[in-house]
Design goal:
two-stranded antiparallel sheet; 6 strands; mainly alpha
Length: 474
């Protein structure tokens, strides 16, 4: 947002034009005049992974909202005692860095970037816009990066626009278009990028399913019937694999110097209830060996009550997530299978919803290193795990919530959409027993883009944590 402040100030001082376009003023004087597509691609992949898995958007907000993690000290975020300065990173980095750099690749002439770079950039930009609208609701979309004071688009407009953007991305991606370097996720494998495009189209189809079922069905059919298909194995998972400091996983960096998070009691209780073998992956045993079992931290406690649970007597998140090279999963094969199961259950596409549901759970187990067929079969055969065709939202919603562990932004979106599992606000939370339904807009929007901001909330509703977004029907 600092960029925007500087640009706005420069615009006001120079008064050289009445136009509010960014053609002349949105330039970094310190940047190279001829940036290279591979370097921009590498940078956006790394920054996108950091943004998705970093503290502000993940374990200091959305992971608390869906009760994957809990705070054992400094519990204000876990009590929803936050302000419009609390959720600025997703907005600022999303717009000022990711979308700006991806637009640069998209607008490169052919000699600077072949169509595959443009297709990848359009895919990543769509993923970024999707994170933004899922968190905030109405956002600048059509005019983003084009005007100093961009208008907001409604969430419906954003989702439908992204479906078209992803169609365009699919048309640009072709193995005959030339090699791609700088791709730290898929190593230039264009067929995997094409699968990601379709998997994101399927995700959006389900986001809009309770509002626009006809369009959702069409999008689901198009995504799954495209020749490239959707993810077909865990090897297709879209992720960023870290190496070591300073390129380390953000959660790893955080836990090197701080100790204020625990796995949530809600998650531990559910995993224990289901005898879920992912528990030792998701959690560590308390450092006090006399405890001898996994103990989650309760959400929404006062600082004193949270502290009294005992730092040595409660479980930190699992080491799987906290090594310097822990992967940042951004779109998983498991999620795609759950989405296919739901698309079948809704009658959008043909298939076996129950088998796809089982395959989704199996893919999640495999993702976390659990491959024993007997263990998996025994889990799937439990009455409390078996697919319920009469309430697919409960079956899929509960298991997707478990599988999304650590992926706070998407866990938050799907929990709001499917309404499972049923979560209860902690005793010291400040929203009258409600849980958050969105992020606040950054406070700077009111001063820097006030007219657009006011127009957006006039349609969407007040800028409150409890205002439901368009896709969140129930």
């Amino acid at each position: 947002m600092l960029k925007i402040i500087l640009y706005t100030t420069l615009f006001a001082i120079t008064l050289t034009s009445c136009s509010d376009t960014l053609d002349d003023i949105n330039k970094n004087p310190n940047a190279t005049e001829t940036p290279l597509a591979p370097y921009l691609l590498t940078g956006t992949l790394k920054q996108g992974a950091d943004l998705y898995w970093g503290s502000t958007n993940n374990f200091d907000s959305s992971l608390l909202f869906v009760q994957h993690w809990a705070k054992i000290q400094y519990t204000e975020p876990d009590r929803y005692d936050v302000s419009n300065t609390s959720f600025t990173t997703l907005w600022n980095t999303g717009y000022a860095t990711l979308i700006t750099d991806l637009n640069t690749i998209i607008n490169f002439p052919q000699e600077q970037a072949n169509p595959n770079y443009k297709g990848i950039a359009l895919t990543l930009r769509s993923w970024t816009f999707l994170l933004l609208t899922d968190a905030y609701g109405s956002i600048p979309y059509k005019e983003a990066g084009l005007k100093v004071n961009p208008a907001y688009n409604t969430q419906k407009e954003v989702y439908t626009g992204l479906l078209e953007d992803l169609k365009q991305a699919q048309s640009l991606l072709n193995t005959a278009n030339g090699a791609v370097t700088g791709d730290l996720s898929y190593k230039g494998d264009i067929l995997k990028w094409k699968k990601l495009v379709n998997s994101l189209r399927l995700r959006i189809a389900l986001r809009i399913s309770d509002r626009e079922p006809a369009l959702a069905k069409q999008a689901a059919i198009e995504a799954t019937s495209d020749a490239a298909g959707v993810f077909a194995s865990n090897s297709d998972t879209f992720k960023f694999t870290y190496t070591s400091s300073p390129q380390q996983n953000p959660a790893s960096a955080w836990f090197e110097t701080r100790d204020d998070y625990r796995i949530s009691k809600t998650m531990v209780d559910k995993l224990n209830e289901l005898s879920d073998p992912r528990l030792p992956v998701y959690a560590q045993l308390p450092s006090d060996a006399s405890v001898g079992k996994y103990v989650g931290g309760a959400n929404g406690l006062s600082n004193s009550d949270a502290n009294s649970q005992g730092f040595a007597k409660t479980s930190k998140p699992g080491t799987y997530f906290l090594t310097s090279s822990s992967p940042a999963v951004l779109v998983s094969y498991s999620e795609v299978l759950f989405n296919l199961s739901e698309a079948v259950a809704r009658g959008y596409i043909s298939g076996d919803a129950e088998q796809l549901y089982k395959n989704a759970i199996t893919a999640s187990f495999n993702q976390f290193g659990i491959t024993d067929a007997t263990v998996i079969t025994n889990y799937l055969n439990q009455v409390s795990v078996k697919y319920d065709a009469t309430d697919y939202a409960k079956s899929i919603g509960t298991q997707k919530w478990i599988a999304f562990f650590g992926q706070g932004l998407d866990a938050f979106a799907e929990w709001r959409r499917l309404d499972y599992p049923v979560l209860t606000a902690g005793p010291a939370t400040v929203l009258d027993g409600k849980l958050p339904s969105r992020f606040f807009y950054p406070g700077t929007e009111q001063s820097l883009n006030g007219n657009s901001y006011q127009a957006a909330i006039a349609v969407q509703g007040k800028d409150l944590l409890t205002t439901k977004l368009w896709f969140d029907v129930k």
